[in-house]
Structures are given as structure tokens and as C-alpha cells.
């Protein structure tokens, strides 16, 4: 069993904090790393694949540190996001070279098996420079699989794939997961992650925002109370009118801010409720602003995209 | 040494447009040798200018810069080095394999043409051609190691390398004698002087100083490059 453990890890670049005090553990099966662009997904994958040192905390594979430890590559296969891959080699030469670099007993057999797995044998004699995005992705995949690794890390593997290639890759990853391998892939598209991942880790702005199976993540995203700061011409009367409706979970009168802090259960319901209630009661709304905006907008973005 | 790394490096180096670029240096040296060799001036003076100033002093470091950075900096820049590094291979093996390719390429495209050009303009007399050849062999090996290291340290390896070879060694080295002590070119000349007959080749450094410096710089470059590779980080997609 191969488990990657990220323990209180932060990574900063100058004064940009890319990953902020994240702890998670990735075990066998398919895990999706979900988050919008710039959330820190690639940074996490680089940390897990030994291509970035944590600024704080530790990243380990079955207890062994990953940074500056080449032996972990016996167990890890990495499919990087970037496309460049010795484009003067043919697909066959590229995968074979990877097998040789692992010093496998029979590199040719391993390369053949890997190319068959990703169904790229038909184009293996062509230079990789002439491949489409999806084909490159699959050959990169073959190069990562050639040594039969227990852990597979993939950074945005579905980018640039057509629907058929996408399904094919999902099928393949699902199979690896079922075989007991530890498979982690990143994506900024919820639907993609939902379809494939048994387990989902959500990162937002460098922080570990949520964790669980897709039902739990969906529920968290759509049903979590949304918080708003509301100012009006008569806060008390507005509060009384709002609390009567089922989409309001809680209201607090904030005297220092001279505003209402409202928790809504149902995002859509609340946005239609508020103006209607105010109008009926003859109250003027002065400010309506979502609190903890970053997380809010991210979740609605993930849900709607 | 790892033969797969060697193979990948050779194909990357010679397979692209750079392969053609490598031919410029030998063609230039041989062409000038053929044209000037027929003239009636001072043959010794001509040979020193052609092999020393133009060859070892200018073309050799430039070629080694192209080759030394070409065997590794290109892969680091485009990110394909990941495929070498995500393997349980000792980093020094990657470095020595790439260095072997760089050194042999420089010998073939820089040292050998220096020997041929020397034979054309001066013949075998006084061991002058052989001396410059030996000096170039030694210097181009160290240049390769140094520029390979540079390729793992900075993204501006070519600019820094050019500044070192042309500004430090050639320009400052001509005026400030201290700069000559730290000059691969002078170390090569020192070895060349020892090979040629007395008085044929002028060098500013004793052999006893040049040889240890050559060895230390070459070894330190390999170790430094291996250390850099072991800690290489992948930049995020900008
Ligand atoms: N090498 C780097 N130097 C400076 N900032 C970086 C670097 N790599 C990543 N970042 C920053 O870290 C944050 C997270 O980036 P990244 O991990 O690439 O996000 P994702 O893969 O989720 O899109 C971004 O704000 C990005 O600009
Ligand atoms: Mg990314």
C-alpha cells in the first residue's frame, strides 16, 4: 500500500503563498485534487513528486521523505502538465528511453505493454512532435506507467482531450485505482472529478478547503450556509421579516458594524427573497455583500462550471 | 555513465538546428587556414593568431558554450528534464553522461579543426599544431564542464558564459595579469606550451598551477551540476 502524506505543508514563492498549511493523505484508489486556477494544485503535485521542497512541513511516501530522494521514483509515476517531451523522438523511442532509464530487466517489453495500455501503438513510429494534445497526454501517461508504479500523479491530465480520449483515460485511471494503486489527478472542473474520483480534496487559494466523496463535496458546496452582510434603512424590521423565511438560517445584529449578518441556507432562494421582503416591508437596502467572498465565489464557480 | 542519457543528449544536440551551427566553427578555421596558409607573411605569427587568438581564444569557448549549455539548459528550460529526473538514477550519472557528449562534441568540432588548421598553416614543425591541439583538448573539456554547470544554475547561461569567455578571459585577461590566473584559456595554453617545443607557444601560467586548477574546476563543476539537478524545482505554469 502506497500512501503519500502531506503534513502541515506550506510553500511560498517570495511573498506569494502557493500552499498554506495543508495536511492530507492520499491512499490507494483514485483521488481528485479539485480547485480553480492558481489554487495550488500544481504546487502540491510538484511537492508530492519531489520537484519542489516544502517551505514548511513534510511530504512523505510511506514514511520516507520525497524531496531529494530519487529512490521514490521506483514507486512514483508522474505525468506533468507541460507538454515538452523530446519531440524529436518517436513515441516508441520516448517510452523505451523511459523504461531504460528505470533500468528495467526488459525495457522493450515494458514499453510495448505501456503503449498498449494507453492504446498508442498505432502511432508509436511517429515523432511525438507531430502528436495532438491528447496523443501527447497518452504517451506521457505510458512513460509514467512503464515501470508499473504504485503511485500515479497526474497534473491536469484531461486538458486538451476530446470526449472520447477523456472517457478512455478515465477508464484507465479507474482500473488503476481498482487495482489498488494510488492515483491522484488535478482538475479545475467539478464534473470531471465527480465522474472519476472516489475521493476529492478541494484546495482554494492555497488552503485545504474540503475533503470527502463527491456527494459530500456537492453538499458542502451547494448547501453550506452563505453569509452576507446587509445594511438597510431599518435593520431590525428587516431581520424580523427575513427570519420568517425558511431559506434564512440565522441572523445577527452587529452593532459595531451597524449591519445584519445573515446566514442563508439556499443561495438562490435567498437572492430572490431578500429584495422581495425588503420591498414588501418598505425597507431600503443599502449594502448587500457576501462575507468570506473568496471561498463563496470559488464554490459557486466550481458548481456552475 | 548512462547510455540512454548519452543517446538522448546526442540526438537533442545534433538533431536540431544547432547541429548545423556546430559546423560553422570548423569551417571558419579551415577556410581561413586554407586562404592564409598560401600567403608569404610570418608563418609563426599567423599560426599563433589563428590557433591561439581566433581558435582557443574565441571560437573554442563559444562553441563549448553552445554545446555545454545545449546538453542540459535546453531541457531545463522546456521542462523535459523531468523525464530524466523522475527516475531512480544518481544525479552525477546524468551529469557525467551529458558532459561526455559535450566534451566529445567539442573535441570533434573545435579541437580537431584546430589541429588541422595548424597543420595547414604551419605543418608539424616545433610541435606547435600539436601543442595548440592538446591545449584545446584540455580547455574545451573544462569549458564544457563549466558551461554545463552554468546551464543548471542560471537561465541566462549563454549570456553569462559569453561574458566570462569574451569579456573576462579575452578583454580583461589582456590587461590585468591576475585575470589570467583564472582563465581556462590560459590553463590550456600552459598545457600546450609544455607539449610544443620551447618558444613556440606563449602562456602566462606555470604548468604546476594550471593542471591543479583545471582538475579542480572540472571536478567542482560536475559535483555542482549534480547537486543542482538533485534539487531542481519545477516552476509553476505562468
Ligand atoms: N515558481 C513560482 N514562482 C512564483 N509564484 C508561483 C510559482 N509557482 C506557482 N506560483 C503561484 O502559486 C500559486 C499556485 O499556483 P499553482 O500551484 O500553479 O496553481 P494551480 O495548479 O492550482 O493552477 C499561484 O498564485 C501561482 O502564481
Ligand atoms: Mg496547475
UniProtKB/TrEMBL annotation, chain A:
It comes from the Bacteria. The keyword Cytoplasm does not apply. GO terms for molecular function: ATP binding; ATP hydrolysis activity. Residues 4-230 form the ABC transporter domain. This is ABC transporter. InterPro entries: AAA+_ATPase, ABC_transporter-like_ATP-bd, ABC_transporter-like_CS, P-loop_NTPase. Keywords: ATP-binding, Nucleotide-binding, Transport. Belongs to the ABC transporter superfamily. The keyword Kinase does not apply.
UniProtKB/TrEMBL annotation, chain B:
GO terms for cellular component: plasma membrane. Keywords: Membrane, Transmembrane, Transmembrane helix. The keyword Isomerase does not apply. The keyword Signal does not apply. The chain crosses the membrane at residues 20-38, 50-73, 99-123, 129-150, 157-181, 201-223. One of its GO terms (molecular function) is ABC-type transporter activity. This is ABC transporter permease. It comes from Streptomyces tateyamensis. The lineage of its organism: Bacteria, Bacillati, Actinomycetota, Actinomycetes, Kitasatosporales.
